[in-house]
Structures are given as structure tokens and as C-alpha cells.
Amino acid sequence: MYLALARKYRPQRFADLIGQPHITKTLQNAINTDKLYPGLIFSGMKGVGKTSAARILAKALNCAKGPASEPCNECEACREITGDKSPDYIEIDGASNNGVEEIRNLKETVKYRPLKNRSRVVVIDEVHMLSNSAWNALLKTIEEPPEHTYFIMATTDFHKIPATIISRCQHFEFKRIPHEVIIKLLKEICIKENITISDYALYLVAKSSEGSLRDAKKILDQAIALSEGGDVKDQNVIDILGVIDEETFIDLSKNIFTKDRKAIIEQVNTLAERGMDLRFFYSEYLKFLRDLMVLKSLDESEKLHSLNPENLPRIREILKNVREIELLRYFNAAKDLEQTMRNTENPRIILEYLFLKLSYFSSLVSIEELIDEVKTGKRSDDRMVQQAASPSPSPSLSPMDAVISGAAAARTPQPGGSGNSGAAVNPDQLKNLLVEKISPERPRWAPALGAASFEMGQNKLVITLAADFELAYNTIIDQADFLKKMVFSILKRNIDIEIALADTPVKDENANIENLKNDEKITNLMDKIKGKIVNIE
Asked: What is the mean pLDDT of each run of 10 residues along the chain (537 residues)?
């Protein structure tokens, strides 16, 4: 009979237990110092080594060379426990033995000394399935177990275990196994089994297992069975998992960012003709957008996303001119259609609508830019005229690149000049980027800088804050180094910064009072409520 990979390569020593160093070290130290707690709870998702750790612990306690930090796996006690033949190693299923009678029979068994081994180990798998009466029957035994008896309770739903039980046991939480660790282990198994498989196929297997090593081995078993002569093709794994090739998402995103709407419609049409579940495609694309945000936002994000490492150079290339806030806008727009996508009878139409909508986002003007236009008295059409009339960076450049290009142009000597003149950096673009960059860390600075005037010289930036922002002015002066650092991160060069506060305008109280009395909104309100102005302060 064929032995499944999950059983054939089951960990037999603590050193073989993958991804749980915090647990193995604690258990080994407890064995070496004879301070192992009699009641243990192993919790965690399926397939991360809970029952394997329990079996290894039982062998370490009863090994002929122990109790030892590692079992020898050669003595009679170790072999019997490995083969489920030991009378002193009891492993029961809590789901099918969840009644009070089963627990009473267990209590009768464990009250006697071990028949052959040094210690008796009782493992209750899926212990959260026990009934309330079974928990009550087990309570006193766990708190005061018979001599030489250890209880290990494994569960995938720790929160269902009663607090009275938890208080009497030590809890060990098994972590999800990282993708890269699973890939490394599967590659070693394939070498031992003479299986040919690509790194991309192993990546798909590890990703679909979601951190469960047992599930990963099961999928690999299935892929080997589908292969011919042990040569596993990428398409074999894709067919088994029913996953969507990451290339599809990359191509679609590229079409969205470049506004290739014809390609978008054709791609959705191809998916529909292939019989793809478009609702599933939508949910998977949401995950892909999330991974794009992580990749764009964080420098060291390899362990925080599920993107194929082989595709990262291409993905970074298409993200080069896309800002983080734009990616967040794409994700929010896609997430807003989740309920619609779930309930619609025409997912293809909704999907086409979504991707076409996303393709227009790069042309939209943000609210912050509109507010700035209102404050400065400039309209969007004025801005377009200015851009058309003055030398500007290529339209393909992002706002950040545009500012940097302007800075480079400002430093480039012009023909017939001394080198100090030339195209100046656009102060409005610099201000917008600076406000956007500073807002997360210094949110109170944003309104003051947004309302300030920016003047750019050859190697000097003058920021004049409105008179109403005196408190913000004092704070910015005290932390001028931080401001200079932010400006450097945008312009990529050091520049002198002068921060000034505009003069407080002289108030004409009488003029202000007259203006308020004649204000159209106030006079209209007075007419509606038949009121009159009594006093103005």
C-alpha cells in the first residue's frame, strides 16, 4: 500500500518539527530539568505539527536513553510509540469520544501505573469537541493526574476550551508555517522521491496550503499522481488547485494602469469563455491588489505578501509610476463592489464595469488638489493651460518624478546663462507632495503647510505660513530638521529652508461689524425667523 507523504515524512524528532522553535526548545528544557507540566494544551491550525509534537514528546519521556531532549527512535519504547503499538501511549479522537462515559473509562485506565514504559502519555485530539459533562469529568484528573501520567490536548479551536481547563494546563500555540519553509521542505522531499517539479509549482502548492505542512504534502501527493513518470508540470498543479495564474492578474493590472480598455474587455471576455468563476476571480484579484499595496508600501515585504518571487521584477516595473495612495483607491473601489458581485446575476458585466472604472482613476484629481486650487484661486483648467504653456516633465512621470525632474532642470545651466537660472521647481507640486508625505507623522502640520505659500529659489525654499498658524509655526521651527529631511526625500538633494510667519493683518472692527450686518446669509436668516441683531462680539 502506498504510504502518503504526510505519514512517510512525519517528524520523528524535535529537530524535524518545522516552524515551531519556541515550542520545541521549551519542551526540551522542561524534560532536561524534570519540570514538564502534567497538563498541556497544543493549539493551532491544522497540519502544523500538534499531534506529531505530542508523539515526539512521549518518545522523549520514555526513551531507553532518556528522558532525553531527543528520542533515539531505535529502542523498543520509541518504536512502539512510532507504530501506535505502545500500551502506555493513548491517542484518542475527541470528536468521536466526546461523551462522559468515554472520559470515565479513560480515568479508570490512567489511574494504574504504566504497563511497560516510564510514563503514560494521553493525547486527546480535537479536544474542543468534548461535551460539557465530559469536561467536568476530566477536570479533576487534569489538575491532579496520577503519577507518571501526562495529558496533552490538541485543538484547532482554543477558544472553545473551558477556562477552568485552561487554568490547569500550560498552553503552547503552534504557528502557521511560512511559505518559504514549506517550499524548502517540499523541494527536499521531491529530491528524495526523484520528482521533477519547478519552483513556481512548489510556490503554488505552498501558497494554497496557507501554512499547513500536511496540506502541502497532500497536494504534492496529488500532483505526483497526476504527473507522468514523476515529472510534475506547472499546469498539473494549476489544474489540481484551480488557481488563477498570477500572470493573468499582472497583465490585467498593467492594462488598468496604462488605460488599455480594449485589452481589459478582451481579457474579461477570455475569462468568461474559459468558464472561469468570475466571482472567484474577483475575490482573488482583491488579494492580489492587497499584495501590490504591501509590495509598494514596504521595503522588506517578502514575508508579508504571497506574490511569486519570479514575478517581482515585472510587478515592480508596472508599479513604478503608481503611488501608494492610488493603489489604496483601487482597492477601496474594488472592495465596495463585494456585495454587488456576490448577489449579481451578471458577474461579467460588473467585472467589466469595475476594471474600466479603475482604468480612469489615474486621470482623476484628488480632493486635496482641488482644495489647494480653491485656496490659491487657481482652477483646474488654469493648471492645464500652465502645463501646456510651460516646459514640463513627460506626462508619463508620476508627481514625485515630476518634482525631481523640475529640480534637475533648475540645476542645469541654460545656454547663454550663468547656470543660476532655468526652469524652477513647481512650488505647488512640491507643497502637495510635502503635505501628503508629512500628514501620517505630523497630521497637525498638514493644514498649516497646505495653506502656506512656497517660493523656490536656486538652492533655497521659503515657506511662509499664514498668520493664523503661529502655534504650528513654532512647532515646525523647533523640528526644522524633520521638515528638511522630508523635503530631501522628495527633491533628492539638500536645500536651504526658511520658514516665515506672515504678518498679522490689522483688524478693522467697525468694517467687520458692518460686513456681518450686511452678510446675505445673515439677512436671509433674519427675514425667515423675523429676528434682529442685538449685539455682535
From this structure: 83 87 90 88 90 90 85 88 86 80 81 83 88 84 84 90 88 88 90 88 86 90 84 84 83 90 90 86 89 84 76 87 85 88 88 89 70 62 41 43 46 42 61 83 81 84 85 84 86 86 65 72 76 73
Q: How far is it, in rounded angstroms, from Cα 346 to Cα 363?
A: 28
CB contact set of 52 (below 8 Å; sequence gap of 6+)? 10, 11, 17
d(CA 138, CA 148): 17
Could you give the C-alpha distances from 50 to 9, 14, 144, 224, in angstroms and in order?
A: 15, 12, 23, 26
Query: CA 56 to CA 369: how far, in whole Å?
Result: 63
- Give residues with Cβ within 8 angstroms of 126, minimum separation 6: 93, 94, 95, 154, 155, 156
Please indicate, yes or no, whether the overall pTM of this predicted structure exceeds 0.70. Answer: no
CB 86 within 8 A of CB 175: no
- Helix intervals (H) in 258-346: 261-273, 278-297, 312-318, 324-335, 338-343
The residue written with cell numbers 476571480 in the block is 281
Rounded Cα distance between 427 and 452, Å, is 11
- Measured CA to CA, the distance from residue 213 to residue 50 in angstroms comes to 11
